[in-house]
Amino acid sequence: MLRPTLIITFLVFTLQSAHAAEPIRLGLNYPSTGNYKSEGLELRRGALLAVDQINQSGGLLGRRLELVSLNSAARAEKARANVDRFANQGAAMIFGGANSEEALSAGQRARELGLLYFPTLGYANEITGRDGHRHLFRESNSAWMSARVLGEYLSWHMPNRRYHYISLDDAWGNSMEQALREATKSRDRARHGYSKIAARGARRDDYLSALQKAAASDADVLVIVLLGQDLVQTMRLAHTLELGKRMQIIAPNLTQSIVEQAGPLVMENVIGTEAWTWRVPQREKSETGQAFVERYIALHQAYPGSTAASAYGIVRQWADAVGRAGRLDSEAVIAELENHRYSLLKDEQYWRDFDHQNVQSIYAVRVRDRSEIMQDRFKQDYFTIIHRMDGEEAAPSLDDWQQERGDQLQLQ
Question: Please, what's the largest Cα pairwise distance for the chain?
């Protein structure tokens, strides 16, 4: 009489054990081809390091993490389609991307499927502003935040200058140019000229024409609002034209991989912003940040950049929130993330509840002279931090955010 009961009990236990043994999958949208493939490599390295550390510490909810990576090629439609593929594979969370269009499109699809999405290299204000929603959390800084720290530095050290803008004609390019014009009081487009670069299909002649227009202006400051290979090619042409000798060049969102691709000689003295560099943990006295740097160096014989740090931080923060919630349910994780304060790779950060923007200190940086860079052991010590702004000061206020949102004053 007991045998059927024992068999049923054994089957239930076996099924539960099999389920518990299944890994928790995380979906990484990353560009392994195209203009942003170098950033994509950094994204994957940072994410894998976090996954490995969590697994070595016993996993999450008694299960291992598994990173599932798909090439987005930095295309919004491809990133969106990948979200469906991740969902079909049972991903519990999705993150990544190399531009704002990816973040907006993939984030919206994740919302429709009830999944959380964490953009990495998406800086457009719309991501956590006009188009923000409950299922999207942005770890990287916004265009507004970059503009605030740059605007303050430039107003102190280079006041009353004439600007010229070369901007990508997409969500990030337009919001970055607008925010920086506001921050530097260069709103007058007749006095402070501009050129637009097509978001897709731009050619060498397009970059050259825009630079020649800048060269013919009376500008003291040239702002190049481009990313990836667009920025690399434009900087190489600007170097050939020797524009850096008579203009201060600003590239608002710099990354380590950009300097590597363009070359330190081409990028000398360019000013931009970073949310993190490999020297920040030492500056902010962050032991966990320094441990991350050392582990990354040991694995790759290179310094981690802000792109790797962002991916690493997202995985760690999501996993911590799941651990506090005790389950993978998106609503439970959202509740644990909102207004959660933490210190991981630098000083204190937190996920703001009303817009899901990560509020953190932002740094204005200058690319060091090539002669200094070449003395470094990896020849990768690219940035000097020239200014710092607290996250609360850099991020838009609740009033600013509500003005951008219009009638929709809460995340849906």
Answer: 95
Is residue 130 within 8 Å of 351, Cβ to Cβ? no
For the chain, how far is it from start to end, CA to CA, in angstroms?
A: 55
Cα–chain-centroid distance for residue 60?
Answer: 25
Could you tell me the sign of the dihedral formed by the alpha carbons of 215, 220, 225, 227, in that order? positive
- Contact criterion met (CB below 8 Å) for 228 and 74: yes
Alpha helices in 185-263 (DSSP H): 204-215, 228-240, 256-262
| Alpha carbon distances (Å) from 69 to 25, 99, 362, 385 | 10, 17, 29, 33
pLDDT attached to residue 10? 45
Using DSSP bridges, classify how beta strands 163-169 and 221-225 pair: parallel, antiparallel or unpaired. parallel
Per 3-state DSSP, the chain is made up of helix, strand and coil in percentages (nearest 5) of: 50, 20, 35
* Beta carbons within 10 angstroms of residue 180's beta carbon: 25
Question: Which residue is associated with the tokens 């014009």?
Answer: 181
The pLDDT score that the predictor gives to residue 409 is 82
Only one residue has tokens 């699809």, namely 109
The rounded distance, in Å, linking the Cα atoms of 232 and 357 is 28
| Rounded Cα gap, residues 49 and 65, in angstroms | 12
Residue-level pLDDT at 14: 42
Q: What stretch of H or E contains 166?
A: strand 163-169
Domains by residue range for the chain, with CATH: 3-143+284-361 (3.40.50.2300), 145-275+373-394 (3.40.50.2300)
Tokens 């959390």 found at: 137
Render pLDDT for 273-320 as a digit per residue (tens, 0 to 9).
Answer: 999 999 999 999 999 999 999 999 999 999 999 999 999 999 999 999
**Over the range 358-373, which residues count as b (16 or more CB within 10 Å of their CB) and which as e?**
bbbbbbbbbbbebeeb
275 within 8 A of 140, measured Cβ to Cβ: yes
Q: Which residues of the chain have pLDDT under 70?
A: 1-20
